[in-house]
Amino acid sequence: MSNNTYELDNSALPLPISQIARTTAQRFANQQPTPEKAQQVRLNTLAVSVVNDYLQMMEIPTDLRVSDSWNPIMQLSANVADLEIPSIGRLECRPVGLYEQVCAVPPETWEERVGYVVVQIDGALQEAKLLGFTRNVTTETLPLSRLQPLEALIDHLEQLRTSPFKTLVNLSQWFADQCEAGWQTVESLWDLLESQPAYAFRSSVTTEATSPNHSEAITRRAKLIDLGITIIDQPVMLIVEIGPEMNQQTNIRLQLHSTGNQIYLPTGVQLTVLDESGAVFLEAEARSADNYIQLQFRGEIQERFSVQVSLDEMRITENFVI
């Protein structure tokens, strides 16, 4: 991961706060039960409005109506400042005051966000500055020195719009036992493979937990991958194991196994991890006597990657978000 910093004063983009934005922010604020909550909603609304105006100028479609920040119930129950970008996701727009060096980022906004923009709002609520952008946040305070320039935001949104990650498997939801269609527990999928000798499969998936302190939170799911191997006439099994790590990271272990009466994987079958840009991050290839191959890495919340299983000209890809 790169760490790009820059001078805020040189790269911040000043924008006027429209009268419509101020009127809307005051209307939302008037619906709140306390002055503190009213001020929070007012600033959140202004931050979202300014980012919305900026993206409209950049010809990037937005939809305020479906954003939580425009929902009266969510305004009251949470501290959210999200902006829905159709076909891409939700961008969090966090307000800060003048001379502040860090931005508060509530935990309820750490997930289901494609990025974060920090908006500095002056005391008179007349002008705002877009200070910069970051992809991920996992702490309640974001140092402004960590921000990247707005050009990085536009590049990031364009990358998401054109990326191959159309259908994403959300790994974080697996911890709550919510899995997408096709993914099952190893045990239930095992029941479908009655002809598989126990020694050829079960002995190799009883892997040691990668984080002993969190062993009770390890979650493992499996899926059959059909590579059209007509000679062998057996699919391979992709197992994805996830477990929490320190610093809000997730440990991910991938295993590819033979199934059926085949003790070994087809020679040359490959297991590859691609990063968000489509570049190869990790890969492994089965030799002549491998009954499984595996890869292991760590990722942060909202990071995206894909897993590719390939043999000769056949390739199957599964896309994930942590």
UniProtKB/TrEMBL annotation:
Domain of life (superkingdom): Bacteria
- What InterPro entries does UniProt report for this protein, alphabetically? DUF1822
Give the Pfam families listed for this entry: DUF1822 (PF08852)
Record's protein name: DUF1822 family protein
What organism does the UniProt record list as the source?
Answer: Atlanticothrix silvestris CENA357
